[in-house]
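Section 5.1 Outputs to date
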Amino acid sequence: MQAVIETGGKQYIVSPGMKLKVEKLPEQKKDEVIFNQVLLFTADDGKVVTDPTELSSVKVKAKVISEGKNKKILVFKRKSKKDYKKAFGHRQFYSLVEILEIEIAAP
């Protein structure tokens, strides 16, 4: 069973038991999160669901394991012939979540 979810402006392929880093969520450590924005669902029997009306009943439950900051990204700006140089870094916050289950509500 797999699903494609959208969170933080990015899309992730998830399955139960999987751990992944997503953009920082407002939930605290050990809280449960429900991802409602499911874009695609694949059942164990091979059935693929892409219809938005059917996908509205699919929910992905996850648990926040930890929070942190990613590795630093170095940004360097330069303009030729103007003697302009600027370097700075950025560390994005993330939440590490574990996918608990993919839930399908009965129609």
